[in-house]
Amino acid sequence: MAAVSEVSVNEWHLIETLGKSPTVVSVGGNVKNWATTKRLSPSADVRIDPIIEQVRSSGTKIVLPALDSARDKRSYRIECLPVVGPTGKVHAVQLWIGDPDVTPTPPRIVSGFSWLLERFVIAQTLEAALMSGVKPEDHVPERTPAEYYAKAIKFDDSEAMLAAGLNPVDDQTFDADMSVLHADGRVMRWHMWARGCVEEGERGLRLLWHDVTDTTPPRRPTLAELGMQESVKDSGIYTAVFCTQTAVLALWLPEPAPWVKWRDIPGANQVIHADDRHLLSSAQDKFNLGSTDPVHVVARLRTENDDWRPSTLRISPYPGPLTERLAIVQISPLTES
């Protein structure tokens, strides 16, 4: 029995192509639950899947001004546009199915990006940077996870994203929403979809961002969350999550230490001085043997002037499923006695 069409005529459909089988994840900015593409055909004799696959494989758009349906005795305008990720793979296609005499509205705001586990960086396209108001001349092709998380004023799934990125399972899906502050001061709501990737050179996650602010109000930090940020500033102790084997800063909880340079650094693991990075892995070795006692050390952290400032680190086991790879690190400036 043929699938019943669920296509929305004269509307943009977002179809993720992050893994083996494309699925519909948004229609007109309304998020869908990884829905099948089989119901996109407006008529039994108008096949949409081959068009999606052609755009996915070629990376070029297809425009069919009037595709005839003998069954319906009418025509459909089809436009299919690729959303290319930073490695050149097509992460999604935007599909318009409409009446021939209706001019399509501008495509939705979408971008592709990748979590590359080998170097522990997030690679992004220019389109991804533009979504938050970054000027083209200020675009940076790669960011650390901490820099990317810092875009958000509300993101409750950072741990789940870390877990998915650090232990990628081929084609495994993950999605979440994030509230992001635009450069012009407005708060946006983005939805993210991801699939695990184990291909050589792309091991990690392939991801997709979609601005859905016009259909779904952004969520904002709670008063408790805002209060926690202020108490952190008052205490002078700042908490971060580090990958212990690579010394990569994963994210701040919730505020970054103001004297530490962690944006726009040469490498994702260069927050801590090269001669001090072993302190994290040494602490992890103790935790892996069963110790839960915090490890107190002094390490040099990069400053805004690219100098190195001695700081006190209190390293504790990470209390989640990635406890063998992550640690909670409380950071405070070393005071001279």
Topology:
Blueprint (H helix, E strand, L loop, with lengths): L10 E6 L6 E5 L2 E6 L13 H10 L3 E8 L4 E11 L5 E9 L11 E7 L4 E4 L1 H6 L10 E2 L1 H5 L2 E3 L3 H9 L6 E9 L5 E11 L6 E8 L11 H13 L2 E6 L4 E6 L24 H11 L6 E8 L5 E10 L8 E8 L4
Antiparallel strand pairs: 1-2, 1-6, 2-3, 4-5, 5-6, 7-8, 7-13, 8-9, 10-11, 11-12, 12-13, 14-15, 14-18, 16-17, 17-18
Query: What's the overall geometry?
Result: elongated
Total DSSP E strands: 18
Instruction: State the strand order across the main sheet.
Output: 9-8-7-13-12-11-10
- Show unreliable segments: none
- In helices, the fraction of residues equals 10-25%
Q: Per CATH, what is the topology of the largest domain? A: Beta-Lactamase
CATH superfamily of the largest domain: PAS domain
Q: Please compute the radius of gyration using only Cα atoms.
A: 23 Å
Sheet/helix structural class: alpha+beta
User: What is the element string, with H for helices and E for strands?
Assistant: EEEHEEEEEHEHEHEEEHEEHEEE
Share of residues in strands: 35-45%
SS element count, helices:
6
Distance between the termini: 80 Å
How would you characterize the largest beta sheet?
7 strands, antiparallel
- Class of the largest domain in CATH? Alpha Beta
Q: Mean of the pLDDT scores?
A: 89
